[in-house]
Amino acid sequence: MLLSVLIPCYNEERTLARCIEHVLRIADQDLQLQIVIVNDCSTDNSLAVAQDLARQYPVIKIVSHERNRGKGAAVRTAFAHATGDVVGIQDADLEYDPQDLKRMLTPIRDGRADVVFGSRFLTANTHRVLYFWHSVANKTLTLLSNMFTDLNLTDMECCYKVFTQEVARKIVIHEDRFGVEPELVAQVAQLRARVFEMGISYDGRTYEEGKKIGLKDAFRALYCVVRYNAGHSPLALQFLVYCVIGGTAAVVNLAVFLLMIAGGIAVTPAVLSAFFIAAATNYGLSIWLLFERRVKWSATTEVALYVLLITIVAVFDLSVTKGMIAVGAADAWAKITASVAGLVLNFLGRRFLVFPQIGRGAWKRAIPTHEQNQP
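Predicted structure:
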């Protein structure tokens, strides 16, 4: 078996050499290695260290970015250069033990798994005790990811992920930073790959020792969990996400209307302006969180269908409201009923007409083929 070990590297001159030494030790008569180091425009001596290692060990290949692009971009570049039967991701620090990476190959060797994820929470091995709130955030994000993917992982954010080459070739990485972790999990779930999880040891670093992930990465991970899963989740879960989108647009509608009225604008132009601004907000949030653009239609056709849909829903809302009032319903109940019915109609129209999903993984069409997993 040939294992391609992908190592994103940014300013790891203190640990890179020892990391590579540990990786090289897992090779044996049954396991050959290809090591792909992606220097993500390091500002220290990481590249020089990598080049020295490459001169000593022919199994090492170095690829460099001209600017710092993030872990996800480095993994994407490394995927494009991986030639092994199995592809694994290894950080350039010393937080993870490559012996665990070797153990994770067992379910794949046995023909039971297509993908194996590591877990820092399923282990009897050593585990450095560090940040409580990091673990809370990790478990929360893992829980949310599991809700969307219907997997039962314990550590979605774990670096150690191993894929067969067949699965690796089907993965298209969009994320440039640490959002790559939930994105990889989402794509594996959508591929219906056979997934195993194994406990690993973990010797985490403090920020003083070089840890790089921060609060903004946690929020990005939250977005990635929703963005790369919501459009492929059950309709009920998609509708729940759309309710958040619709609710936000409704708040924008009300806020704009009240601001315009307070500014002396007449009711009719205030209502129309607020409506169309809210519709634009809804459209933006829909393609940002839930649906993928241009899957079936051109951009022009898609916008035309969207305008047609909101026009139909507006007419429907008006007709239901006036009809219920005409038969004696209270104004409030008439409007609430029409709004709820309109919310459902809006969602179904967007999901099946404006932004139809064609098969599993349709959102991958957002990246042109010639750019997929390329350096």
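Summary: The chain has 13 helices and seven strands.
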